[in-house]
Design goal:
Length: about 325
């Protein structure tokens, strides 16, 4: 039996920063409204970079921090819903940017939940002893599919990528991952792309989604601890999906976890979709908050709806 241990993390954010004050000049909104409803004050937006470019930079940093030769990577999984190209997949583009050949590389789309899905797939390969080093990336450039005239969505999202390298180890590691989908609410948040409609645009019924998100994430956190026999005060860190500070606070309250035990990046990143969790995790690791062997829960929800969690010892 092998566990998947995080041995390196990395991130990449576009240079361009868009503040709430910039948005005030673009749509009928205000810094006060955005701060009060979401907690977001700024986000990074690409100029000409793609999701693959961001993913490659985050992956390079994660590999440097893992202190391994990139040639040791056995598998690359990239979670994204905004790939640079439909073909080939983003994983192949990342592999090329890393200058390595031969290892399998593929993409996976579960919207904002993509990184947890990718982590879960990676963990299956490692725990069965099939692969030793796996690169897992979450990357999205939702700015490319946002309607910049729709104030109800354009203020929420940002671009970025986060990556981690997992290594097979005899000590934990990932203790478990828990994945869910339910398409009953498939029209609450969606973007279509057909031959007739070449420019996909995100459509969202925010108020409905807010309620589902709060209920889902509160229950998910409690269920995840229960499944592994932990109590709320065993948890050192919650790394939640960075969509809305109000949703994050509700989940923390339900877990009876003080907010200084919750990694928060939504204020400076906005909702970066599949990049949200790895960006937040990297932030927690880089800042020295998350320490070796601490108990960490990742949890997320997104379009689908999809949702999921992971419990791990860092
Ligand atoms: N600036 C100013 N006013 C606005 C803005 C804006 N940017 N957007 C909406 N409003 C107005 C609305 O028109 C509405 O006005 P009305 O009362 O005159 O009709 C009023 O503000 C309140 O709108 P609500 O939608 O009820 O505001 P709410 O408090 O629900 O906040 C928000 C909206 C922030 C979108 C919230 O519902 C939310 O965070 N929902 C969850 C979103 C989410 O997490 N999505 C990502 C899922 S992850 C993924 O897969 C990508």
């Amino acid at each position: 039996m092998y566990y998947s241990r995080i041995i390196g993390s990395g991130s990449s954010l576009p240079e361009r920063r868009l503040t709430n004050f910039d948005l005030e000049k673009m749509v009928d909104t205000s810094d006060a409204w955005i701060m009060e409803r979401t907690g977001i004050s700024s986000r990074h937006i690409v100029t000409d970079e793609s999701s693959a470019d961001l993913a490659s930079e985050a992956a390079k940093e994660a590999i440097v921090n893992a202190d391994i030769d990139p040639k040791l990577i056995d598998l690359i999984i990239v979670a994204t819903c905004t790939p640079e190209r439909l073909l080939p997949n983003t994983g192949c583009l990342v592999q090329n940017a890393l200058g390595i050949r031969g290892c399998p590389a593929f993409d996976l789309n579960a919207a904002c939940s993509g990184f947890i899905y990718a982590l879960s797939v990676a963990d299956q390969y490692i725990s069965r002893g099939l692969y030793k080093h796996i690169l897992t990336v979450g990357t999205d450039t939702l700015s490319k599919i946002v309607n910049w005239e729709d104030r109800t969505t354009c203020v929420l999202f940002g671009d970025g990528a986060g990556a981690i390298v997992l290594r097979a180890d005899h000590t934990p590691g990932i203790l478990g991952t828990h994945l869910y989908s339910d398409a009953a609410n498939r029209d609450v948040l969606y973007a279509t792309k057909t031959h007739a409609d070449t420019s996909p645009i995100i459509k969202m019924r925010g108020r409905e989604l807010f309620k589902v998100a709060v209920n889902t994430l509160e229950k998910l956190a409690i269920d995840t601890l229960d499944k592994h026999g932990f109590k709320h005060d065993d948890l050192d860190w919650l790394v939640p999906h960075q969509a809305n500070l109000r949703i994050i606070k509700a989940a923390a309250k339900r877990l009876k976890l003080p907010l200084d035990r919750v990694i928060q990046t939504v204020q400076k990143h906005g909702n970066t979709s599949a990049a949200s969790l790895p960006l937040a995790l990297h932030d927690g690791i880089q800042s020295g908050k998350v320490k070796q062997n601490e108990l960490v829960m990742l949890e997320v929800f997104g379009a689908g709806l999809t949702w999921g969690s992971a419990l791990l010892r860092y």
